[in-house]
């Protein structure tokens, strides 16, 4: 009986360690600096909220920055993302709003994998667009899960494609080393 009392807590610890390496809902706050040094000039902030429910992942991201171009001229930028990604990583719906020096640009889209293709339907101020993305492109949360899985499996370096809903609205390559 005494051995069983020690075994159960140890087993729970081992199980908890396996679970902790997976993507978890969280809130993260970042300070953006111009350079890698801890005392580099602060140019903005970023806040990310990641939640999970029965429908899937919900990602909200808010990035704000002010970059000085000269002593009297500053570049102000703000970008928000509100997205919903299915648990399977096969569907993403999003809305992004970017504001640069007071000028707003809103983009709404749906990215879906079907019949071996990844297609994006995007509506922006330029009008609607239909884009076929590289088939290996992953949705944002699915991409993070993939990267965690590869790292846990011992991969030292690899490349993956991730859909960028907040910035370009296209796939971008992530090199993990």
Features:
18% helix; disordered N terminus; three-stranded mixed β-sheet; globular; eight-stranded antiparallel β-sheet; 11 strands; 177 residues; alpha+beta
What does this molecule look like?
The chain is of the alpha+beta class and 177 residues long. It is built from 2 helices and 11 strands, in the order H-E-E-E-E-E-E-E-E-E-H-E-E. The protein has helices at 2-20, 140-152; strands at residues 26-33, 42-53, 56-68, 74-85, 91-100, 103-114, 117-124, 127-133, 137-138, 158-164, 170-176. The strands form 2 sheets. It has an 8-stranded antiparallel beta sheet with strand order 1-2-3-4-5-6-7-8, with no helix packed on it. Strands 9-10-11 form a 3-stranded mixed beta sheet. A hairpin with a 2-residue loop joins strand 6 and strand 7 (117-124). The longest helix is centred in the N-terminal third of the chain and has 19 residues, at 2-20. The chain is globular.
> Which runs of at least 5 residues are low in confidence (pLDDT < 50)?
1-20
H and E order? HEEEEEEEEEHEE
- Helix count equals 2
Describe the sheet with the most strands: 8 strands, antiparallel
**Count the strands?**
11
Gyration radius, rounded: 20 Å
Amino- and carboxy-terminal Cα gap: 47 Å
* General form: globular
Strand content: over 45%
Strand order of the largest sheet: 1-2-3-4-5-6-7-8
Question: Which structural class do the helices and strands define?
Answer: alpha+beta
Secondary-structure topology with pairs:
Layout: H1 2-20, E1 26-33, E2 42-53, E3 56-68, E4 74-85, E5 91-100, E6 103-114, E7 117-124, E8 127-133, E9 137-138, H2 140-152, E10 158-164, E11 170-176
């Amino acid at each position: 009986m005494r051995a069983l009392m020690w075994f159960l807590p140890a087993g729970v610890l081992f199980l908890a360690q396996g679970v902790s390496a997976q993507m978890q809902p969280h809130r993260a706050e970042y300070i953006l600096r111009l350079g890698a040094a801890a005392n580099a000039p602060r140019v903005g902030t970023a806040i990310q909220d990641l939640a999970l429910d029965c429908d899937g992942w919900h990602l909200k991201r808010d990035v704000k920055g002010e970059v000085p171009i000269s002593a009297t001229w500053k570049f102000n930028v703000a970008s928000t993302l509100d997205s919903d990604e299915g648990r399977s990583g096969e569907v993403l719906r999003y809305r992004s709003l970017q504001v640069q020096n007071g000028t707003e640009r809103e983009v709404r889209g749906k990215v879906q994998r079907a019949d071996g293709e990844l297609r994006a339907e995007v509506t922006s101020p330029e009008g609607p667009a239909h884009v076929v993305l590289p088939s290996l492109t992953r949705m944002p949360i699915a991409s993070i899960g993939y990267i965690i899985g590869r790292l846990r499996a011992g991969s030292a370096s690899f490349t993956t494609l991730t859909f960028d809903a907040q910035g370009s609205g296209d796939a971008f390559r992530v090199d993990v080393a």
